[in-house]
Please model this.
Amino acid sequence: MSNKPVNILIVGVGGQGTILASRILAYVAQNIAKDVKVSEIHGMSQRGGSVVTQVRYGEKVYAPVIAEGTADIIIGFEKLEALRWAKYLKKGGKMVVNDQEIDPMPVIMGVAEYPESIYDSFDGEELLKVPALTMAREVGNQKATNVVLLGALAKSLGHEATLWEEALENTVPQKFLELNLKAFRMGYGFEG
Model:
């Protein structure tokens, strides 16, 4: 493993499961790295506001916060949130983005419009567009969108599914485990 930490930013809207996703990711990171740091920023998450989690892992990680322009990967649970945080992605970094639009308050109030062509803004970056909400509904629960995205991420990183499935078994309540395993496997099998 390189001495340089791996920096992953998870961004979304309150209620999308970003915090659980960061816990699953941190579990995986603990099994592949010596040092792991996690930082959560909730904002107005209970009112549909922005939620950001930063996961850093490697040989030695000195701080939990990812500096602008240094994220290796951004996982966007919502397209506009991915765009808002894109400045944190390093040149040549990877974007894994859920193809979902959730109108922010200014759009709901009619004082702004949801931007079109968001994906054009990620020009030059490695972009994996995942219809995670649709896929989660196919397995039976739209709340599994987060785990579908983690499956797509795991596959794009070349990770074996078994470590991630173990992470699910250790972080997801037993009554939701089978659903989440199905969601993860669907995301892992996604060919973007």
